[in-house]
Specification:
Layout (H helix, E strand, L loop, with lengths): L12 H11 L4 E7 L2 E6 L4 H14 L3
Antiparallel strand pairs: 1-2
Length: 63
């Protein structure tokens, strides 16, 4: 995920992403953060589900 510059000042943005994936029953294998991006590794079986969850988060425009 690539975040806009304003995301740097948004508290809890990584926690939000992690919790939304957990709600969808998606296990994160690895998470790497480095402004302005967040790299999430998931199991191949969860790939489509994770993609759809991330797209929904983007539509909510949380960040």
């Amino acid at each position: 995920m690539f975040f806009p510059e304003t995301a740097n000042k948004t508290k809890g943005i990584v926690a939000y992403v992690a919790s939304q994936l957990a709600i969808e029953d998606i296990n994160m294998v690895e998470m790497l953060t480095g402004t302005p991006e967040l790299i999430i590794y998931v199991d191949e079986n969860d790939l489509l589900k994770a993609y759809n969850a991330i797209q929904r988060m983007k539509r909510k425009d949380y960040y």
